[in-house]
Every structure is written in C-alpha cells, then in structure tokens.
Protein 1
Amino acid sequence: MLEVIDAQRRYRGGRGTGPVSLTVSAGEVLGVVGPNGAGKTTLFDALCGVGDLHAGIVRLDGRELGRRLPAELCGFLPEQSRLFPQLTALQACRFEAAMRRLEMEEDALGEHLTRFGCAGFRDTEVRRLSQGMTRRLGIACAFLGAPRVVVLDEPLNGLDVEGVLLFRRVLADYLDGGGMALMSSHILSVLDEVCERVILLKDGLVAATVDVPAGGAERAYLEVFGR
Ligand SMILES: Nc1ncnc2c1ncn2[C@@H]1O[C@H](COP(=O)(O)OP(=O)(O)OP(=O)(O)O)[C@@H](O)[C@H]1O
C-alpha cells in the first residue's frame, strides 16, 4: 500500500498543494480530479521528486521513504513530456532505465516498446514524433520495469483510439500484477472506468473522497464544485 501523509508543497503566495493525505492499495488506481490550478500537478511532481515536498511523509508497503517516491520504485508520466527531444524512442527508454537504476538488456527494452505500441518509431528522434506517439512513449517509460507505483498525469492527452485501448490493457495487466496507480484526468468517465476511489482537490486540499461505484466521479464533482 502507498500512504501519503500530510504532503505539502506551497509556493510563495500560498498556491500549490497540501496538506494532502491519501492511500492507494495494491491493484488500485486512485483518481485525482480538480479544476485547473487545484494542485494535481504540484502534488504529482513533488511525490516523484520534481520539486520537493515541504512537509509530509511517504510510506510504501509499510516502509517510510521520506518525502518522495524513489525513482526505482516509481514510474512517472508528467502532464507535459519531459523526454529529451534529440534522443530516439529507444534511447529515451534506455535513459529512463538508467535513471531508475533498472538493469534491462537492449532486447528487453525493444520488447517493452513493442508492447506499448512504439515499435514503429523506436529509432525515430522524440522531436520528430507526433503528440500521440510522444504520449505512448511517455507511458512506456512510466511502466518500464513494472514499478511498484505509477503516477500518471493526464495519461490520455493526445492518444488516439488505439492508444487509449492499449493504455487500458497495459494498466489492467499492471494492476493484476499488484501495481498501484495515482492518475489524474479531466475526463471523469475515464476515472469511473478504472478507479474504485477518486479524490477531489480544491485549492490544493482534498475536498472529498468518493467511492466510484457509489455514484461516479461526475456526480461527486458536481456536488463539490457545482455546475
Ligand atoms: N512554479 C510555480 N510558482 C508559483 N505558483 C505555481 C507554480 N506552479 C504552479 N503554481 C500555482 O499552484 C497552483 C496549483 O497548480 P498546479 O499546476 O499544481 O494545478 P493543476 O491542478 O495541475 O492544474 P491543471 O489542471 O491546470 O494542470 C495554481 O494556482 C498555480 O498557479
């Protein structure tokens, strides 16, 4: 289980996120929803070590990890691609593996790219990829090595229909293997499909935690934020 306790990152002027507490069980996707500026990206970035949490504790499977998820345990798909434009898809994947201290042979990296629908452009530089291809590659990098946790900020942005179907499949396989995911989306029906629980962020704080089968993310969103 992932436990985040009183995580906080506030910028000068008070904007940002926290204190926020949340849990994610093995095999679960916890959805994170909120209007623009609610603090989702700040929270995800800080949990994954892009900018520090100013306060809070992260615990994984009972082990205290300090204020961030270490790279070897966590795959991260940021909202905007941070892949180096001059690397090929395969090189970007190799770079990600090195950053996360994963020992993967070239063949395994190639197979991984194929599984994530990136085989057709494995030798193409990132700067020459379409938005959807770049997103697929970002997703492939996040799931590299089947990390204990994946943090996915708007994963469907830019994906075509095939990409969405592929994403659903790989996410389901990952969860079947006991993985856990934190995922934001502005498309509430997507969260209804894959999440058992959703947290609603408002001004950086958790305004509500919703069991999805009890009514869905959309109804909860309307109750908290109105129309
Ligand atoms: N580097 C920064 N310096 C100061 N304020 C910031 C900085 N980054 C974000 N903020 C502010 O912190 C708040 C949370 O921003 P954040 O990007 O985390 O929201 P978000 O929920 O991800 O929004 P969106 O849905 O638009 O991506 C906003 O008010 C934003 O203006």
Note: Residues 11, 15-16, 34, 36-42, 79 surround adenosine-5'-triphosphate (CB under 6 Å).
Protein 2
Amino acid sequence: MSEVALYAHPARLRAANWLRTLAALGVLIGTVAVLTLVFGRTGERIALLMCVNVAAVVALAVFCGNTGIVSFGHGAFMALGAYASGILTMPAGLQRSALPELPGWLSGYELSVLGALPLVLLVGLCFALLTGSAISRLQGASAAIATLGLLIIVHSIAISAREFTRGSQTFYGVPRITDLTFVLLAAIGVVIVARLYRESRWGLFVRAARDDEDAASALGIYPRRARLVAWTLSGTLATLAGALYGHILGAFSPASFYLGLVFAQVVMMIVGGMSSVGGAVVGVVAVTILQNTVRNLEGGITVVGVTLPEVFGLTTVSLGIAILLVIWLRPQGLVGGFELGPGAGARLLDRIKPTVPVTPTPRPVTTEILKARGLSRSFAGVKAVTDVSFDVPAGRITGLIGPNGAGKSTFVNLITGQYAADTGTAEIDGVHLTGLLRHRIIEHRVARSFQNLRLFSGLTAFENVLVAALAAGYGRKNANAVALRELKAFDLGGIAAMRADNLPYGARKRLEIARALAQDPAILLLDEPAAGMNPAETDDLADRLIRIRQDRNIGILLIDHDLRFVNRLCSHIVVMNRGQKIAEGTPEEVRANPEVIEAYIGRGRVARAADASSTQDQVLAN
Ligand SMILES: Nc1ncnc2c1ncn2[C@@H]1O[C@H](COP(=O)(O)OP(=O)(O)OP(=O)(O)O)[C@@H](O)[C@H]1O
C-alpha cells in the first residue's frame, strides 16, 4: 500500500494530525525539562513565561491560522484577562491601597486563581462576542487593521479607567503563580482545545472560507458566522492566557499588553507556521530560545577574553530578523507544510484499524425540477443574461452550451445566488431560490461546481469533501462515510491525505465534482467540468457522470465547450448566445437549428456552407 493510501481513512487522517501536535508538545515538554534541570530558578521562570506564551500564541493562531487574518488585537484580551483576574483575586487589604476607588460591587472577592477563572473566561467570552460581531464582517487587511484598532482602544481605556487599572501606573498586588506544572497543563489544555476545534465542523468551515469564500458559501457555509466562532474561541483562550500572564508577573501596566507583546507573539506564530497548532507551539519554543540567547548578548559578554560591547534593543531586532528570514526562506513557517513521511509515524498509523465506516443514511430519491423563469442580469449595460427560461428536471443531464460570453456561467451564478437577478425567478419544488442568501441555496439541494477550479487549497482532498458533507447537514460519522464514498466514486481514495493544491489537474477537477456530490444534491450544476482534461480523462468523467445520474436520479445541468462530451451525456440541450436562449431540444433538434449554426460559425460561413450536407454535424461535433 502506498504511503498516502495508508492514511486514506478518517481515523488515520485524524491520528496523523494528532501525531504532529503531540510531537510539538513533546518539544515543549522537553524544553521545559531542560530549562528547569539545567538553568535552575532562572530556567523555571523562562519556562513559566514560555508556557504562557504557548497558550497565548496558540489562542492567537486559533483565529489567525484558521481564518488567514493576522490579528494584532489579542493583547486586548490578554489585558482584560490579567486585570479581571487581578481584581478578583487580590487580597482585600492590598486592594484598598492599590485600587481605592474600585466600585463596591467589584471589590473584596479574594477568589483563588482557579475560582476566578470561570468568571474571567465568561468576561472574555462576552467581550469576544461583542467585538467579533463587527470584526467577523471583515476580511484580509481591513480585518487586520480593525484588530489593531481594538488593541489601541482597549489600551487607551486601560489607561483612562484608573479606578480599575491604576491607569498607566503599575497594577500591583496580584497573587503570583509559581507552579510550573499548573501553567504547563494550562498550555497543553489550550493546545488540545485548539486541535479539537481545528478538526471540528466549525474549524473546517472557517478554513474552507479562508481558502475560498465564494466556494464555501456555495456549499452552505456562512463565512461570517464561522469567523465569529473562531474569534470568540480565540479571544476567550487569549483571556485565559492573559490571566495566567498577569499572575506570573504579579505587577503590570497597560504597556505590558501593548505592541511589544503583540509583536513578539505574532512573530512566534509566523516563525512556527500559523496554519498549524504544532507550528504555534514550536514557534514559541524557538523564539523563546532565540530571545533569551540574544538577551544575554545584549548586556555584553566576554568570549575568549574579548568583551563584546552592550547593544541595547538587540532582542527586538532579533525578532525582526527572525520574521524576515522566515518570510523569505520558509514562508509557511518552521512546521507549516510538514507532512508525516514513511517511517515511525507511518508505521504507527498503520496500527490503527480502519473501522468500517457507516453507510450514509440515504436521502429520499428526488423528483424535483429546477425551473428558471425569465432570468435576466446586466452588468453596466452588458446584458449577460436576458429573459432565460428552461427546466432542469431530476434524472436527466441537461446540456447548456453557447459560444464564449453567451451568459452560461452568469445563468448558474443567478441560480446559486452568486449574483442577484434583475428580473425573473429560479425555483425548485415550489421554493424560490432567487432572493435567498448564497449559503441557503444548498438547503434546497442545489449544488454546483465552478468554471475555474475553486477548491479549498489548504485542506486535504478528504477534508474538501468532508466539509461539503458537513455543510449539507450530515453528522460527523455520516459525513465521513459520504466523503469516503465520493472519493472512491472518483478514484481519489489513494490521495485523500494530500492537500488539494498538490493534486494533479485532472484529480482536482474530479475532486470538485466529488465535493459537490457529497452534498447529496437533487440538482447539480456543473460549469465546464471537462475543461483542460485530455480525451481519456473526459471519457472517464462522462462514464462516471452517467453512472451517478443512473444510480442517484439527480438532475445535472452540464455546461461545456466540448460538444462531443455534451452530446454523449445530454438527452436535452439548451443553447445560449449573447445572453439569450436561442434553442432547446434534443441534440438532433439543436444540431438542425440554423440559429445555433450561425451562433457557432457565423452568418457568412453559414451562407457559404449552406449546400454542404455535413455542416450541421460539423458545427456540434467540434
Ligand atoms: N461580474 C461581472 N461583471 C461584469 N461583466 C460580467 C460579469 N460576469 C459576466 N460578465 C459579462 O457577462 C457576459 C457573459 O459572461 P459569462 O461568463 O456568463 O459567459 P459564458 O457563456 O459563461 O462564457 P464562457 O463560455 O467564456 O465561460 C460576458 O460579456 C461577461 O463579460
């Protein structure tokens, strides 16, 4: 069995992911052990801060790695956690002197650190939900800038809310944590939560939306909601990390959670590789070692009798150099893109017995008809689709052909909510699709593929199909089974563990159809599925589509320029030209239609070829 085939089962794929995370945790625990055993109390303090940083950076990566948006705002959550936990745990006597103006309802609790933690997490959760409702609407650079804005606002509030924080003065009297095991366990807990989330339904949804928001929406994922979940979990975990940080420091000020800290943590995340949980852990360990080594050099050291001069700011400079080197030499980070090769890891996975997957619960056989009525859409005066009406019934493959720019893709985009129709409707089973939000279309069992490949490039082939099944409403076990079924149907089982962007072109085309079929659609809209395939691949795809139509009775709308392919598959063909439907009927009827011939070869040539008996066949055979 080939190495990749070895993992082609959900249990083994999951185990491969966990192995990577466990390896990273091994690095963390090993480093903690070396620090404490070799460097005594100094090493213990470094280890404490390193564990807190692991919790904070993994929390940060829960949002950044899964959404692809770099956040500079997580210092705000850390500050919230530190101040909230500090106030709740501070001895009453110290509190009276440190925070004399603290409102009565907030003073004198004297909770233990563990006792305060649920309340602190609740505060973090509420704050994350509040801020996330705005930030989750944004993407890319604007989202990143919004998080920076959040950091600046919270920093200013922390300075002005003197009765709670002592303003820019040191906030002291916070009970100290010195128990390394407790902090290490907390860090491991955060790593486990992050790993579970990443593999969960919501983790898969948000990673799919990160890679392609349009394709994710077409599957029924609501990207904004998926980002809100990521932000809320990430912010809550960062609040926990902040509380721990505050208890390790014992005294801090708003500056402790500002740009310096945020920059260091972003560097740690990027150095390790922000798209993986293990990457965040390894990044923290690597940068901690770097920072402490450079810090020793900063004060000037003597090497073989030569005393090096003191260089202030060398630690920060080293962070800058580290991030530049990583971006230049290894943009995916130290751990990003790392795949388990053959050897110990593969042998371990081999021991996992693939349980027989459940058979997916069958959905009712479909009888639906997709009806388009008078659909029109213009773009700045260009009439892309004008008054187009026809049916796509279940159990039939309907062809939609026409020259370039005829309006075929726009027609599909109107049905699937990608574009709003100017006029007209599309309905299935009496339900109007036009007017529905994109991610609601799949509820009516209409799935699609895209003209240009729109796979989730950072997800494996298996995850691409799994996420579609989950978005269609399948439970986890059924979704696993559906994903395996579709991968098998398209001969992709052996490459299930490969990232979609590493697959050969033909496999990627098949994967996109497998993904759409995992949604168990009643109607499937395929936009140029054979484009770029060689004749053998096209024939193979035709065989598979014929089998799928027969077995599942689904209705397929097939757009393609390869008319041999269309003729072989379709018993009914619709022809569009310049946005309008110009013909509809059996392949023979369409072939005989002069308007179709004219659309394909032009008016002049039609006239010249008028006597040639083979003209009609030539037109649709090319
Ligand atoms: N988002 C858009 N903005 C502006 N014009 C658009 C947009 N989408 C489509 N069009 C225009 O609408 C017309 C129809 O395009 P469409 O992509 O639907 O044609 P098509 O039949 O799918 O062509 P092809 O076979 O080349 O893919 C074209 O003139 C195109 O430029």
Note: Residues 48 and 182 are 10 Å apart (CA to CA).
